[in-house]
Write a structure and sequence with these properties.
The protein has about 120 residues and is an alpha+beta fold. It has a single domain (about 5-115), classed as Nucleotidyltransferase, domain 5 (2-Layer Sandwich), CATH 3.30.420. It is built from 3 helices and 4 strands. It has a 4-stranded mixed β-sheet with strand order 3-2-1-4. A hairpin with a 4-residue loop joins β1 (about 30-35) and β2 (about 40-45). α2 (about 70-85) packs parallel to α3 (about 105-115). It starts with 5 loop residues before the first helix and ends in a 5-residue tail after the last helix. The mean pLDDT is about 95.
Length: about 120
């Protein structure tokens, strides 16, 4: 990976360190989060097959109806991913914070997903 800046390089190293241990299976897929400056995305992935089972983002029509704070936006995406996962028959997941620190938007999304019925 080309080093663009120190923060991105640091996050990439943390991501690789975490991904050595975490892997999604068919019975317990991986819930991964990507956070950009304005949006937040979540996917539930089966790593054995390499397929995305469920996804949600702040850009979907259900989540982006009205302007809101980014933490509230992340909470809505967490609720949406939990709802879609339960509809698809997924109850247990492994949480992958993708190298981001567990606070702010990442924490808000994870807590909302737990409240929505996902277990991790």
């Amino acid at each position: 990976m080309a080093i663009k800046n120190k923060k991105e390089y640091r996050r990439h190293r943390i991501k690789l360190r975490v991904r050595k241990v975490i892997s999604g299976t068919a019975d317990q897929p991986r819930l991964t989060v990507f956070r950009s400056n304005k949006q937040i995305y979540a996917q539930i992935i089966n790593d054995l097959e390499g397929t995305t089972l469920v996804s949600a983002s702040s850009r979907t029509p259900e989540a982006s109806q009205e302007p809101m704070a980014k933490i509230a936006q992340a909470k809505m995406v967490g609720q949406l991913i939990a709802k879609r996962a339960l509809e698809a028959g997924i109850e247990k997941v492994v949480f992958d914070r993708n190298g981001y620190l567990y606070h702010g938007r990442i924490k808000s999304l994870a807590e909302a997903a737990r409240e929505g019925g996902l277990k991790f």
